[in-house]
Structures are given as structure tokens and as C-alpha cells.
Write a structure and sequence with these properties.
This protein is of the alpha/beta class. The protein has two domains: 224 residues, Spore Coat Polysaccharide Biosynthesis Protein SpsA, Chain A, CATH 3.90.550; 157 residues, 2-C-methyl-D-erythritol 2,4-cyclodiphosphate synthase (60s Ribosomal Protein L30, Chain: A, 2-Layer Sandwich). The chain contains twelve helices and 19 strands. The strands form five sheets. Strands 1, 4, 5, 6, 7, 10, 11 and 12 form an eight-stranded mixed β-sheet that branches.
Length: 400
């Protein structure tokens, strides 16, 4: 991807997904331990070429939406309409003040888009102004009449399956949606069809066969089986960290500034909780330890915020096609008291890692006044990380 256009994305998530069966709106159901909408939004939220991600949701779903996508960065969600077309229009209007050059429009029911597909969408819209991802039709298609009889066999060489994200010049697609609203046309099944109606020439670019829409219970069963088999290498790592107290008026624990009579003696910000979690994740990856990736002898890490280290460790898992299933942290100290801040710490770790809150545990204990923690000379932390990697991943531990 080489263009320099300002690009935003709209994630359409206002539908009810009734054909997907029981379990509530399909975008909030889980596949292999992660919600559909979190899977759909994450590659857009983390893509370096996007300046904003605008979710469009049903107003009744705000609470479940916020829980499902914790840790991702996006624009405040806006309410969708009665149709997909109305929901897209609402998202476009919400982005009007930001006025991006390019907008990508993606269905939350397609949770398997990836960075490469998003980059192709941006490049295609930059070159043509309107483009959709497509994949070839591999089966023979029959046109069937009302009586159930075959009326025609279209030439499949001319047929393609359209996907999202569909990509457009922002001003052009916004104008097209406004025209359709004025003309009371609300029957377009995708934005490419609306763009064609508005007189635009719509180009195509290479889609991704994995980027299929979840519609029926069978779709969920298929993807659950696929991901379960693909991420069947379950690993657990253990992390441990200690920092002594020194001069100061606060300590950083789990990304939270905690007032205290002492500070930490440390090269970075000394966040024992996050450091232990980093080592646990790297241990599960067999990928060295925090010191081998961020040497204390390197001056660039002096005073560094430890959320950078944890984000890095999470990215190492993602880069190998894996996901974090659970993080468990125990803090050992007499003071400061962790209990009143436990939920705030959990929420901060979930935010940094992009995990649902229910997959992050933070606990605390004392050492009954024994040892260095009992003498209040410092704080210790122990962590475990459970991750899932694809079978056959042969990436070895990096050299230290």
C-alpha cells in the first residue's frame, strides 16, 4: 500500500441476524472464544492506513457492544437505521465532519478480513474511486423459475461473489446515499449497487475466500470447527517480576498510576504487573523474555511506559496467527492496597491487550509480613498467559 489518502472505515453492526439462530444478534456471538464483532473490527482498528473506524450499532446493543470490543480504538458508535442502507448512511454522516478521502464499508458479519485485504481496498478506491472485493464463482449456477425448473445456466466466468469492505471516495458515496434518501430508494443490498444506480463505475479487486459472511447456524459451526482446529496448539506461559521501592510518590501497576509513599527503582516505569504479563506471553511463545526484547541497557527504554511492552507481546502472538485466551495476574504486596483498584486494573489490561474483560484476572495477596514484600521493600507479581497458536507453527525462540 503506497497511497497517502486519509481513509476511514464504517463497520455496519446494527442488524439482528435472525437467520443465525438463537443466541442474540450474530455479531455479538463468539467464535473460538472471541466475539464476531471484535474479530471484524480489530484489523481495521489496528491498520496503519486508517485514521478512524466508525461503528454503526442498534441503540439497544450499546452495552453489549462496549463489552464485546473492549480494548479497540474507534469513533463513538452511532445508531443504525431500519435497513443496512440506512445504517451505512448514518455512518457516512457521522464521518462527514472528519471528511476522509476514502471510506471502507464493512459488514460486522464478516469477521475474517485481514490487513492485506484492507490495504487492497484502500489502493483500489484510491485508483478508481469505487471498488468492491470479489471472488470467482466455482460452482455452476442455475437460474430457476417459480415452478422450480431451470430456466438458464449463466456463464460463471462472468460471475463473481461480492464481499466487503467496499471502498469509495468518501464525498462521492456520501452524495449517492443522500440522493437515494431524497428519492426514497432504500432497496439496495450493498453500496456497490447504490453506486451503480448513482452512475458510478465500480471496479473490482481481489477478495479473500476466508472473508465469508456469517448467516446461518451452519456458518458458525463451520468456523468454530475451522478455528478450533487451526488454533489447536494451546500453550501456557509463566511470568514473574519484582521491583524494589525507591524515592517517589506513586507506583505504576497494571497501567494505573497508584498514589504511594514510595516509587519504583526501575529502568522503565517499573510496572511489575505488566512486566510479568509480558514475560508470561513471551514464555508461551517460547520467544525470550522482556529483557531480551527491551534490554535495560538500552537508553530508549528509560522511563518507558510498560503498556508499550505488553502491546508488543500481544502483537507477537497475532503475528504468528494466534490469539490470547486468558491472562491471570497475582500481585504480592502489603501496600498499596490492590483491592479497591482491582477492577480498574483489569479494565486497563483488557484495554491494552484487546481482550474481553472476562478473559483478564487480577488478584492480590500479601506475604503475611514475611520476606521483602512483607517488609514493604518492594512488590512482586506472578502471571500466567494461555494462548492458542496454529498447529504446525515452528517459529523457534529468538536468540538472546
Amino acid at each position: 500500500m503506497t497511497n497517502h489518502h486519509r481513509t476511514a472505515a464504517i463497520i455496519v453492526a446494527a442488524g439482528r441476524g435472525l437467520r443465525a439462530g438463537a443466541g442474540g444478534p450474530k455479531q455479538y456471538r463468539s467464535i473460538a472464544g472471541r466475539t464476531v464483532i471484535a474479530r471484524a473490527m480489530q484489523p481495521f482498528c489496528s491498520h496503519p492506513g486508517l485514521i478512524a473506524v466508525q461503528p454503526v450499532v442498534n441503540p439497544d446493543d450499546i452495552a453489549i457492544f462496549n463489552e464485546a470490543v473492549g480494548g479497540l480504538r474507534y469513533q463513538s458508535p452511532v445508531n443504525g437505521g431500519a435497513t443496512r442502507q440506512a445504517s451505512v448512511h448514518a455512518g457516512l454522516e457521522a464521518l462527514a465532519e472528519l471528511a476522509p478521502d476514502i471510506v471502507l464499508i464493512h459488514d460486522a458479519a464478516r469477521p475474517f478480513a485481514n490487513e492485506a485485504l484492507i490495504s487492497r481496498a484502500i489502493d483500489a478506491a484510491s485508483a478508481t474511486g469505487a471498488a468492491v472485493p470479489v471472488i470467482p464463482v466455482t460452482d455452476t449456477i442455475k437460474q430457476v423459475g417459480a415452478g422450480g425448473h431451470v430456466e438458464a445456466t449463466p456463464d460463471r466466468s462472468q460471475l463473481r461473489i461480492a464481499q466487503t469492505p467496499q471502498a469509495f471516495r468518501f464525498d462521492v458515496i456520501l452524495d449517492a446515499h443522500r440522493r437515494a434518501a431524497r428519492d426514497k430508494r432504500d432497496d439496495f443490498t450493498d453500496d456497490a449497487a447504490l453506486a451503480e444506480w448513482a452512475g458510478l463505475t465500480v471496479a473490482t479487486f481481489e477478495g479473500d475466500p476466508v472473508n465469508m459472511k456469517l448467516t446461518t447456524p451452519a456458518d458458525f459451526d463451520r468456523e468454530e470447527a475451522r478455528l478450533g482446529a487451526a488454533l489447536g496448539d494451546v500453550r501456557t506461559g509463566i511470568g514473574y517480576d519484582v521491583h524494589a521501592f525507591g524515592e517517589g510518590d506513586h507506583v505504576m501497576i497494571c497501567g494505573i498510576r497508584v498514589p504511594h509513599s514510595r516509587g519504583f527503582l526501575a529502568h522503565s516505569d517499573g510496572d511489575v504487573g505488566l512486566h510479568a504479563l509480558v514475560d508470561a506471553i513471551l514464555g508461551a511463545l517460547a520467544d525470550g523474555d522482556i529483557g531480551s526484547h527491551f534490554p535495560p541497557s538500552d537508553p530508549q527504554w528509560k522511563g518507558a511506559a510498560s503498556d508499550r511492552f505488553l502491546t508488543y507481546a500481544v502483537d507477537r502472538v497475532t503475528a504468528r496467527g494466534g490469539q490470547i485466551a486468558h491472562l491471570d495476574l497475582t500481585l504480592i504486596c502489603e501496600r498499596p492496597k490492590i483491592g479497591p483498584l482491582r477492577e480498574t486494573m483489569r479494565a486497563r489490561v483488557a484495554e491494552i491487550t484487546g481482550l474481553p474483560l472476562g478473559r483478564v484476572a487480577v488478584k492480590a495477596t500479601t506475604s503475611e509480613r514475611l520476606g521483602f514484600t512483607g517488609r514493604e521493600e518492594g512488590i512482586a507479581a506472578m502471571a500466567t498467559a494461555t494462548i492458542r497458536l496454529p498447529w504446525g507453527d515452528q517459529t523457534s525462540e529468538r536468540s538472546n
